[in-house]
Amino acid sequence: MTTTDYILDSALVLLVLIQIPERRLTTKALVRPLVIVAIAVANYLHGIPTAGNDLVLIGALALTGLLIGVASGQTVIMRRGEDGEVLARSGWASGFFWVLGMGSRFAFLVWVSNGGAATIGRFSAQHSITSSGAWTAALLAMVVFEVGGRTLVQAARRRQLEILPVPELA
Q1: Element containing residue 79 per DSSP (H, E)
Q2: Amino acid 134: pLDDT
Q3: Which of 60, 128, 157, 160 is most buried per CB count within 10 Å?
Q4: Is 84 part of a structural domain of the chain?
């Protein structure tokens, strides 16, 4: 793993820490993880392999990422503030799902870099996965769908809260 790998993975995991205290759920807060993912995709995706079962691997990890992202976004604690703004914070459940996705990819990369490559090579040969590019595309698809799913769920929930009347002060 390169320094860039560590920085990008750490930045995505640390995003959940920013959301532990309750804060306004702004468009900037929703877009920030998408920008980080776009940087990762631009740095690492050099094509989408389609031979053998490459697309099956990519689809399976994309679906896994989407499920984790939707679960994370759905479990963010959100409410309407006194002045009408939408407030959000990550609770334990949301943090768990976010770290599950980001941490599992990070652990996979560390494992492959420290002796797991031969196992992945055997698995790939047995399951007609044709190249390391398929694994790269699959892991990137997982993160794109996780971040995208989480962001879309939060944006939809924010929109639902915005149309509710502002709570009255007691």
Answers
A1: strand 77-80
A2: 92
A3: 157
A4: yes
Q: At what angle do helices 92-111 and 3-18 cross, to 10 degrees?
A: 170
Both tokens assigned to 141: 């698809």
SS3 126: helix
Q: What is the residue range of 64's domain?
A: 3-162
Instruction: Give, in order, the Cα–Cα distances in Å from 61 to each of 28, 90, 152.
Output: 27, 24, 18
Structure tokens at 69: 């992202």
Give dist(CA 130, CA 165) in Å, integer: 55
Residue 100 lies in a domain: yes
Chain centroid, CA 60 distance in Å: 15
Per-residue pLDDT of 8-53, as tens digits, reads 677 777 776 777 889 999 999 999 889 988 988 998 888 899 999 9
In a domain, 167, yes or no: no
Model-wide pTM > 0.70: yes
Domains identified in the chain, total number: 1
One-letter amino acid identity for 74?
A: Q
What is the distance between the alpha carbons of residues 123 and 125, in angstroms, rounded to a whole number? 6
pLDDT at 101 over 70: yes
Contact 166, 80 (CB under 8 A): yes
Sequence length of the chain is: 170
- Residue 77 placed within a domain: yes
